[in-house]
Amino acid sequence: MIGYLEGRLMKKEPDRILLLVNHVGYEILVPVVVMETLAQKTIGDEVSLYIYYYQTERQPKPVLIGFNLEAEKEFFQSFITVEAIGPLKAVKALNISVGDIAHAIESGDVKTLKQLSGIGDRTAHKIVASLKGKMNKFALIRHESGDAQMPVDEDFIEMVMDVLISQLGYKTTDAREMIGAAIKRNTAISTAEQLFDEIYRGQRQE
């Protein structure tokens, strides 16, 4: 099972890339929202993606779907539990950020969900009915575009602390411990998105 790939970009198409890893080229489907972050990448650039591996009796040819964050992949796995949304439909549907989709689900914003490619009114209501109440942590994910230099937000720790307490219901002491542990594991964290992803990764390992 392939869960993560890191290598050099060999080819880029509108919905997929070819990634060279240890002399093997992997064709990876990429949602629009993820492809936008690769817009500045050129052939030969380093790319790393979390991989959802899809293979069934009906789909015997393995399909790899790539995400920038492990939390985005986890959201995708929840998203495809909705009736009538399979992995191939879901990968086409993700044309706005996971954070915005999760927020729309939690707020019952069917209008925003209908903006997803291939998602009509009936399916949008199914998404809300199936996933509402389970999306708060994904609503923290914010989209980073391309390789543009992101300004360091000196208040990002305080912002994440506030979200953990006020939106996700953690106690102050627990939130402080989670943030401290995340920064200890990864001292290179410089944005709220990176901090949230590290916290999320730590929670999954417990």
Q: In words, what does this structure look like?
A:
This protein has helices at residues 32-35, 70-79, 87-93, 98-106, 110-113, 121-131, 156-166, 172-185, 192-205; strands at 4-13, 16-21, 24-29, 46-54, 63-67. The model is unreliable at 144-152 (pLDDT under 50). It is 41% helix and 17% strand. It is globular and about 45 Å long. Strands 1-2-3-5-4 form a 5-stranded mixed β-barrel. α7 packs across α8 (172-185). It starts with a strand and ends with a helix. It is α+β, with helices and mostly antiparallel strands.
The level of helicity is 40-55%
> Averaging pLDDT over every residue, what do you get?
86
Strands of the biggest beta sheet: in what spatial order? 1-2-3-5-4
Structural class by helix and strand composition = alpha+beta
Rg (CA only): 17 Å
Largest sheet: 5 strands, mixed, barrel
What is the number of beta strands? 5
Spell out the blueprint of helices and strands.
Blueprint: E1 4-13, E2 16-21, E3 24-29, H1 32-35, E4 46-54, E5 63-67, H2 70-79, H3 87-93, H4 98-106, H5 110-113, H6 121-131, H7 156-166, H8 172-185, H9 192-205
Parallel strand pairs: 3-5
Antiparallel strand pairs: 1-2, 1-4, 2-3, 4-5
Helix pairs in contact: 7-8, 8-9
